[in-house]
Amino acid sequence: MTMLRAETRIALPDPAAVLRPLCEHLREHEAEVGEVDGVTTIGLDGSRAELRTVAGALVAVVEASDLAGLQGMKLAVASHVVEFAPQGFAPTIRWSGDGAEPMLPPDFRVLMVTTAEQLTPHMRRIRFRGEDLARYDTLEALHVRLFIPPPGLPEPAWPMIGADGLLQTPPPEQRPAIRKYTIREIDVAAGTLAIDFVLHDDAGPGSAFAARVQVGDRIGMAGPGGRGLKQAARYLFLADETGLPALARMLGHLPAGATGLALVEIADAAERQPLVLPSGVSLRWLHRDGAAPGSTSLLTDALATLDWPAGEGSLYLWAACEHTAFREIRAAARQSLRPEIDAHLVVSYWRAGISEEQHAAEKKAA
Ligand SMILES: Cc1cc2nc3c(=O)[nH]c(=O)nc-3n(C[C@H](O)[C@H](O)[C@H](O)COP(=O)(O)OP(=O)(O)OC[C@H]3O[C@@H](n4cnc5c(N)ncnc54)[C@H](O)[C@@H]3O)c2cc1C
């Protein structure tokens, strides 16, 4: 296998004082850190780095089998050198070798809108065309971060990896808003994918983009991320409209013999959509019927009246919904599931009254 390779020499007043915490930090993030003949070796996600200190500098050589791995390792080294450099000292970093020119991050694609279809009154399916989509075609990681440029910008600006290996974000007035969405359908050969957007009140950049979208508009996409479909004897799915695209994609890929139950909270009967699912999985729509999204206990009430598993096979509980319901479902799962054989993934997809940025900051602080 041909390996890609890049190197840099970073002038530092005391390189050993930067290398030490850098290694400790990467070790905490599951990197394999070792030392051979005075050279520090780091293995991370299939890529490798060799770091050595010389008089007044840290020399780094990184290798990986693909550009994504190479840029990931360059970023890991460069960002931690900046982090652990002495206060007031800004290291100058310039990589030579493969991937040295400024470029879009390897997990980033620019997508162009090809169609927009109103699936239901509050759900809009937008189809995009993009290049080289193979990495996004996986049930292991269903979600992406969308980079939505401010409206009216003649030429969108995207985050770029600079010659220093660090991510350069566009200036604030051109900076895209970042929102998490789910790939609902993907066709790598055709270079297309579809994302279902909830159109909601108090629209932020995500919902507003979906409402105003025009054929030819461009957005950025990075990922994929999150956890995907698990193998289990039986399934219990709970979702509101925001979790419905992920649920629908998983249901469509369950083995034909799968059994279980899917509970989906929606505004009313007009929001129902046809779903492909195995005959052993039943689907129950729960209508808010006039109540605001995120204000009801429909999902948790339905869960409370279910028979939880006894001696049968393993159960996988998957839930994606508004924050309040998420907390209650997670608490119920922790009480009622059998940790030795059951598994669960319960995620808050949005929080009523606050934007995605605030919601993400709260999750991080929790
Ligand atoms: C892993 C993951 C995958 C997701 N996949 C999808 C998907 O495929 N499709 C999808 O539509 N959403 C999805 N979401 C949810 C979506 O990211 C949030 O709803 C996000 O807040 C929408 O961004 P916005 O810019 O429209 O609103 P924001 O700027 O984030 O928020 C503005 C206001 O709108 C409110 N708000 C946000 N979402 C809703 C809503 N659904 N209903 C009512 N009010 C709301 C907020 O509370 C806030 O008051 C996903 C979230 C996660 C974490």
Overview of the molecule:
The longest helix is centred in the first third of the chain and has 18 residues, at 67-84. 22% of the residues lie in helices and 35% in strands. The strands form four sheets. It has a seven-stranded antiparallel sheet. A six-stranded antiparallel sheet has the order 2-3-4-5-1-6, covered by helices on one side. A five-stranded parallel sheet has the order 18-17-16-19-20. The chain is of the alpha+beta class and 366 residues long. It has three domains: 4-97, 2-Layer Sandwich (TATA-Binding Protein); 108-225, Translation factors (Elongation Factor Tu (Ef-tu), domain 3), CATH 2.40.30; 234-365, Nucleotide-binding domain of ferredoxin-NADP reductase (FNR) module (Rossmann fold), CATH 3.40.50.80. The protein has helices spanning 15-28, 67-84, 205-212, 244-252, 298-304, 323-336, 356-365, and strands at residues 4-11, 32-36, 39-44, 47-54, 57-64, 96-97, 108-120, 123-129, 143-148, 160-161, 167-168, 177-182, 185-187, 192-198, 218-225, 234-239, 259-266, 281-287, 315-322, 343-350. The chain is built from seven helices and 20 strands. α6 (323-336) links the parallel β19 (315-322) and β20 (343-350). Bound molecules: flavin-adenine dinucleotide (FAD).
